[in-house]
Amino acid sequence: GAVVSQHPSRVICKSGTSVKIECRSLDFQATTMFWYRQFPKQSLMLMATSNEGSKATYEQGVEKDKFLINHASLTLSTLTVTSAHPEDSSFYICSASFRVGLNTEAFFGQGTRLTVV
Amino acid sequence: QKEVEQNSGPLSVPEGAIASLNCTYSDRGSQSFFWYRQYSGKSPELIMFIYSNGDKEDGRFTAQLNKASQYVSLLIRDSQPSDSATYLCAVKGFETAGNKLTFGGGTRVLVKP
Predict the structure, then answer these.
(1) For residue A111, what is the nearest residue in chain B, using CA coordinates?
(2) Within a 13 Å sphere around the CA of B94, how many CA atoms are in the beta-carbon half?
(3) How far apart are CA B34 and CA B50, in angstroms?
(4) From residue A3, how far is each of A29, A74, B18, B33 by CA, in Å?
(5) Per the omega criterion (within 30 degrees of 0), is the bond before B81 cis?
(6) Which residues in chain A are closer than 8 Å to B88, comparing Cβ atoms?
(7) For residues A70 and A108, what is the distance between their CA atoms, to the nearest angstrom?
(8) What is the pLDDT of residues B95-110, one digit of tens each?
(9) Which of the residues A35, A36, B87, B111 has an alpha carbon 20 to 30 A from that of A93?
(10) φ, ψ (nearest 5 deg) of residue A83
(11) How close A73 comes to chain B (CA, Å)?
(12) Across residues A20-44, what is the average pLDDT?
């Protein structure tokens, strides 16, 4: 399957600081990238949809000024958690999608475990 | 009502048996259906996708889709302890903007030796 690389895999930061997470599609151009958050023992919750060259579309309840998304190219999207607080501690996962024939497939990055202390 | 529903489990299965996982969805216009496996602390990995009614087999996995009943299932034959994980059903709806997937809550599977 296609490779999506997410970095860093783990990060610990102090409350009030900002953290940037990168998501790269290594062997294909992703028309769309998605950012998810997953709390322990819960399913993935979509935070935002990112299209190259345009503003991200945020899901209801997700603060766009707190979770900044930049999709500068067809292979790179970044999520910046600004002024992080302990309640932002979670597993953040990106996904990149591309067309296969008439259908679309999505592949996930390795995820980033964020701990805010 | 949740858009994609799964029994949370755990589904306990003896090694070598068949594990049967179910998923129902509410958007009748849904077009694409995916099964992901997620090990604890790891990111989901795609197992199978299915777009048409009927069965689709890949190795020990079989996905079954019934759009009339808004139901998709996953069978795991000859279950192995390494199959112990959470299985996520995901649906891409016809009416969904972009290509975003809606995930079910996942079913935890435990395969006992």
Answers:
(1) B43
(2) 8
(3) 6
(4) 11, 14, 30, 20
(5) no
(6) 43-44
(7) 18
(8) 555 667 889 999 999 9
(9) B111
(10) 45, 60
(11) 17
(12) 89
Which single residue is written with the structure tokens 């190259």? A52
Q: What is the pLDDT of residues A78-116, one digit of tens each?
A: 999 999 999 999 999 999 887 666 667 778 999 999 999
**Would residue A35 be called left, alpha or beta, if left means φ above 0 and alpha means ψ between -120 and 50 degrees?**
beta
| Closest chain A residue by Cα to residue B105 | A43
Q: Is residue A31 very low, low, confident or very high in pLDDT (cuts 50, 70, 90)?
A: confident
Residue A109: CA count within 13 A, CB half-sphere: 32
From the CA of B44, how many Å to the nearest CA of chain A?
A: 7
Beta B19-25 vs B4-6: how paired, if at all? antiparallel
Structure tokens at A26: 């290594």
pLDDT at B106: 94
Interface test with A, best of B34, B43, B94 (most A CBs within 10 A): B43
What count of Cα atoms within 13 Å lies in the side-chain half-sphere of residue A63? 8
Distances B36 to A4, A44, A76, B86 between C-alpha atoms, Å? 15, 11, 23, 8
What are the start-end ranges of the H helices in chain A?
none
Burial B96-113 (b: 16+ CB within 10 A, else e): beebbbbbbbbbbbebee
